[in-house]
Amino acid sequence: MILDHRTYQLRPDSLAAFLELYGREGLPIQKRHLGEPFGWFVSQDIGPLNQVVHMWKYRDLADREQRRAGLAADPDWQAYLKKASPLLVTMENKILRPAPFFDFA
């Protein structure tokens, strides 16, 4: 198993708008293609502000590639991205593998 760990830095004062838009439009589309997220978090008061972190679990890189290709090809997702992208400053992505002694399957 692998974990796709994404951090989005949002423009100041856009966190609430992003969360509302994502919850209403983005999440349902992603769930159709990616399944349930492993976790979804918002930074608050300590450390970098205006950030969201979300994680998605996949069997392997091939599974991730296939599911994300389906998402990218979805016209609803492309329409959502046109609305959400102006709210973002940066995006960071990491692929995490579990340590040998930890199984999150």
From TrEMBL:
Residues 5-101 form the NIPSNAP domain. Pfam families: NIPSNAP. Belongs to the NipSnap family. PANTHER family: NIPSNAP-RELATED, PROTEIN NIPSNAP. This is NIPSNAP family protein.
